[in-house]
Amino acid sequence: MFSLQNKKAVVTGGGSGIGMAISALFAKQGAEVHIIELTEESAKMAVDEIKADGGKVFSHACNVANHQEVLATFEKIGNINILVNNAGIAHVGKVDTTPEADFDRIMNVNVKGVYNCLHAAIPQFRLSNGGVIVNMASIAAWVGIPDRFAYSTAKGAVMAMTLSVAKDYIGENIRCNSISPARVHTPFVDGFISKNYAGKEAEMFEKLSQSQPIGRMGKPDEIAALALFLCSDESGFVTGCDYPIDGGFIKLNN
Ligand SMILES: NC(=O)c1ccc[n+]([C@@H]2O[C@H](COP(=O)([O-])OP(=O)(O)OC[C@H]3O[C@@H](n4cnc5c(N)ncnc54)[C@H](O)[C@@H]3O)[C@@H](O)[C@H]2O)c1
To answer: 22 and 107: one domain?
Structure first.
């Protein structure tokens, strides 16, 4: 079960955290993995690890927010079977404390980046007679997380794009779903704790762990396992859905 033998998979932001775990697991299951990262350097750790494990992996330096770069990269990769739109950046702020430049930056990467990759991927899926897409949303799209205005806005758009694409391409054998993790322990979390809560890192880490009723953060491998299911033939009947993976965050938190 869950074989990705003979599948070509693109994972954006595959050089770190959740994307790295997805890239490694997909390669292990037999996929040829193409990591899209800001630089070759930011993909290197994942590429080295996958190669050392005997996996097939390529990296492409490309900013998902740049339309032309994304088009050229997908054309170079060619016909694909799987796309995981995972690249994303964090932001802390309420609407009145979010400067316009920050809002634009979050929209450019977390929303336009997903649009760019979907737009570039559809012709390549057609060459493969269909395929499957997983978009990385967040529980921020489901509930109001305090102080995450721009980020929540962007992830709400990711969920809506998922539905739109699932509907528009259902007749072309393309499935599209999204995953909504609660807090997962990755460099993304460590980075925004050290940037926004300097001097109170340990306290903040514990607070963020306890915000999941299960009492801890998720692990990148746990998100990768759900992504594998959604991208495998075993989930062939699943499309147009968002899957929370959240240690009880949405339903058990009160
Ligand atoms: N970690 C969490 O708690 C959490 C929770 C819910 C959702 N998510 C989402 O999961 C995804 C991955 O998060 P993570 O925690 O693994 O993050 P991460 O920061 O560890 O990794 C993200 C990767 O994306 C790459 N990237 C960023 N901007 C890019 C761009 N413009 N073009 C190409 N690559 C780019 C980065 O270089 C990095 O390697 C994000 O979309 C995030 O919003 C994370």
So the answer is: yes
DSSP per position, 121-166: HHHHHHHTT-EEEEEE--GGGTS--TTBHHHHHHHHHHHHHHHHHH
Any idea what the CATH number is for the domain that residue 177 is in? 3.40.50.720
Cβ of 176 less than 6 Å from ligand 1: no
For the CA of 188, the nearest atom of ligand 1: 19
Residue of 188, 245, 249 with the most ligand 1 atoms within 8 Å of its CB, for mutation = 188
AA letter at 221: D
Domain count, the chain: 2
In sequence order, what are the residues at sequence separation of 6 or more whose Cβ sits closer than 8 angstroms to the Cβ of residue 250? Answer: 139, 142, 143, 182, 244
Catalytic residue ranges:
151
Alpha carbons 97 and 147: distance in angstroms, whole number: 9
List, for residues 192-201, the tens digit of each pLDDT value: 899 889 999 9
- Give tens-digit pLDDT for 126-166: 999 999 999 999 999 999 899 999 999 999 999 999 999 99
CA distance 75 to 30: 22
